[in-house]
Amino acid sequence: MRLLLLHSICLLVTFSVEAQLEGVQVQVVETENGFSVTEEIRVHEERPTAIELKALVFDGSEIIGISIFGVNELNYVTASDEDIIVLKVDLKDFKEDLLHIRYTVRIDQEAFYLPVFFTNWTANSSAKDFFNLQFEHPKDREYFIHFPTVNSNKTTSNDVSIINLELLALPSTLRMERINSESGTPNYIVMVDWGVAIVFLIVGYLIWHYRKKLIYG
Amino acid sequence: MNIQFAIFIGYFILIFLIGWLSLRLTKSDKDYWIAGGKLGWAIGGATMAATHTSAGTFIGTIGVIYTVGWSFGWVLIVIPLAYWFTAAILAPRFTKVKELTLPAFLQRRYNSKTARGIGAVIILIATVIYIQAQIVAGGLIANVVFGIDATTGMIVFTLILLAYTMVGGMLAVAYTDFLQLIIMIVGTLVSVPLALNHFNGLSDLLDKVEIIKPLTFDWAGFPTVLLITMSLAFFLGSVATPEKVVRLYAMRNMKSIRRAILLTIIVVTGINLLVFILGLASMALFPNLPTGDLAMPILAKSMLPTFIGTLMLAAVTSAMMSTVDSLLLVAGSALSEDIYQNLVNKKASHSKRLSVARIGILVVGILPLISVLAGFGEGELIQFIVVLFTAIMGAGFFTPVVGGILWKRATKQGAIAAMIGGVVATALWKAFGDPLIYPVVPGFAASILGFIIFSLLSKPPKEEYWKPYFEK
């Protein structure tokens, strides 16, 4: 108990709520107007009576048409500026455990950020599927996900392709790039990986070669 | 996941190989405990830096920065000061007579087996606390990388660690420290530009962090009084913890020690600065983590390419293992040399002492695991567990060690009073004292007072005990 007191002093000024986020699912569908995003936030049954939903603003990505609802649409107050969108939602009369946010992201370049709404609450677990993304786009388009760099599944049916990925935590954004046949798939990540492997081989050789001098001076 | 698993397995195979090769080179007690006392500055400095840079740095520091902001970073400024103190003040006299353990120094300097025994007991208690923090970190990494539950990860991590420490001794520890330091440096150097790549440079990252968590760049994130008093814990602990000072014995001469310490300062300071940037990146990319201690593992898994990300986690695991194996070794020597041979069986053979040491390593390694599984310290940030260990060690050992080589009048009564007073005062303040003042302050004060008062109240020591440390 005494140990936690010290811990709490540090946390108190930065966080004033207990862990209330149980998981987040995001479904993104590419449309003519941009990307239609539906974000489903699972919240704990015991929670504060208000929540702040925030999304970072990135150059080249614009968020429009925001609506928040459970079974019915919820009202919110905006406290946004040029760098961040902040929505304050009153949950006094909200009895459900799923909060939905719908919005559209318009982009004006091939490499873009897709902001994801996060909150002022803390997650209560790091289960491997805490965050789940389903990204749907026309089959004739290709996308590369720069962030997060976790393994993803891609399935194709009819005219659409769907990319699925899971993550242990809610990210504040997705960083993606629309690939065309001219640019090809970015391979800098693979190059960095190989570069590091080569550096280690060289370092390993140098250590072996100078081992006696290194050990005994 | 298969590639990650292969990288981790490959790394552990390499570590075991080093441990086995070191066993073949270990021919005496001196080899086992202090690597023969002839290490050069490169390996010596690497092992000091690697010991310092544990889970407390990669997971703990990032975790605290994630939770309270940059104000905690100021605590780290004392670390170069502490190493300067070690090189300039402590090492020249401390290493005049080489011992196998820190408690052995206490016995020689103060002519007291009791002082040696008490020192060993303090080491054993504090080590259990510290290893607990590292084991928790090991479980987090296992959870993030392999998707296994943290408890299983902690158990596996502990068993691997015990195996190679028991086998190889200090030679294994020193060589694996060097390997682990290389991995940590390369991993950190690569991670930072990759983290900044997701933003438009450092200033964009700072702007985003300030938007998400405004208190990050505010002193209100961490009480100033606590910041200053916690810095004292870091200073004392960086100078006088047994696993650090025993490395002074492992190096061949003062020239090697000075160069090794310079290397340590450069590496430790550099890594901490870079780690600070990773802490900020985690705040911007994952603002809703359940605990700040998850920031580093999740960054490594989701922001970095597979090989580098896994390597980075291997580096963090390395950092933990290099610290824990050093502590296990110190704990083993404390039990074998400072308690068993010193107080129980003076004529114990080499093989008997080694057996006792290995039993000590096993017990001290298993106890923290049991403690964690029993829920002790649950919810505590790793870094705060680390600082508690540092406070206990610093308050207990700084005064008798540094005082012993600077003050001829210091007696065994003063040393014993300093150790007991320092540790007890620290523990009592932690349990019942004002949380805004870090327990090391009353602990250190009690240690100094006890040291001076009891030394002056007792008979002056004979010259033969202090003279070796004061000769020019």
Account of the protein in words:
The complex is a heterodimer of chains A (217) and B (472). Chain A is α+β, with helices and mostly antiparallel strands. Chain A is built from three helices and 16 strands. Chain A has helices at residues 2-12, 188-209, 211-216, and strands spanning 19-31, 34-43, 50-56, 61-69, 73-74, 76-78, 84-90, 98-107, 111-115, 118-119, 122-123, 131-138, 142-147, 152-157, 160-167, 173-179. In chain A, the strands form three sheets. In chain A, strands 1, 2, 4, 5, 8, 11, 12, 14 and 15 form a nine-stranded mixed sheet that branches. In chain A, a hairpin with a 2-residue loop joins strand 14 and strand 15. Chain A is globular, with a radius of gyration of 22 Å. Helices cover 80% and strands 0% of the residues of chain B. The mean pLDDT of chain B is 82. Chain B starts with a helix and ends with a helix. With 472 residues, chain B is mainly alpha-helical. Chain B is built from 19 helices and no strands. Classes of the chains: A alpha+beta (217), B mainly alpha (472).
Largest sheet of chain A: 9 strands, mixed
Low-confidence residue ranges of chain B? none
For this structure, the quaternary state is heterodimer
Beginning-to-end CA distance, first to last residue of chain A: 50 Å
By helix and strand content of chain A, what is the structural category? alpha+beta
How is the main sheet of chain B built? none
- Structural class designation of chain B: mainly alpha
DSSP helix count of chain B? 19
Summarize the structure.
Chain A has 217 residues and is α+β, with helices and mostly antiparallel strands. In chain A, 18% of the residues lie in helices and 48% in strands.
Features:
heterodimer; A: 217 residues; alpha+beta; nine-stranded mixed beta sheet; four-stranded antiparallel beta sheet; 16 strands; 18% helix; 48% strand; globular; disordered N terminus; B: 472 residues; mainly alpha; 19 helices
